[in-house]
Amino acid sequence: MSTPEKPKGNKTREQWIAEGKAYWYARRDMQAMFCFEQALRIDQTGAFGLAVRGLALHSIQRDQEALPNFEEALQLDPNEALAWFGKGNSLWTLERYEEALPAFQQALRLVPNDYHTWYGWSNTLLGLKRFEEALAGFKQALQLDPKDGPAWHGKASALLNMRRFEEALVAYKQSLQMDASNGIGWYNYATTLEMLGRADEARKARETARTLGYSGPAPS
User: Fold this and answer.
1) Using DSSP, how many helices (H) and how many strands (E) does the chain show?
2) pTM higher than 0.70 for the full model?
């Protein structure tokens, strides 16, 4: 999903939230927080206000502080989809995938056509190594937003883990067309090329990843 260079204009609270989500998924944290703060200026009340406060904290990686806001919002209104969405994202960031999954499922029950929720749900399944389910989820996300690079990357990662290398390669190419500055994407693209025995192409892709600042996962 594309995002403007800077958040601007007069918008409804829902439009600010949608733009904030797009910035956060594009890893533009300060712009995301600005959007959530603008939504709060419009409506600070009740479950919605608490959910947006949580998202603002989540956007700057203060997830332990964000979670109580989501929990309080859901006590006030168990059908506040934004709170379920935020809770799922904070739990995912904290690598509490088993807890994140039902939060995303609750959000999808309330807003079944929300791209960002499908992406979060699918990414959580990827973290749980439930690759076939993750693949189905990323496909659903791409039906809602066919031009989203992170969803193509997620689909490719699921396919790579399922050893469906030719399909993974196509999906990584799509991801990199959307965001050629993604070092992790180039690294994974190189890994897929290696699996297919295309060593020279893999070496070039690995060099691109390094140029973009990514040399592979840190040693455990």
Assistant:
1) 12, 0
2) yes
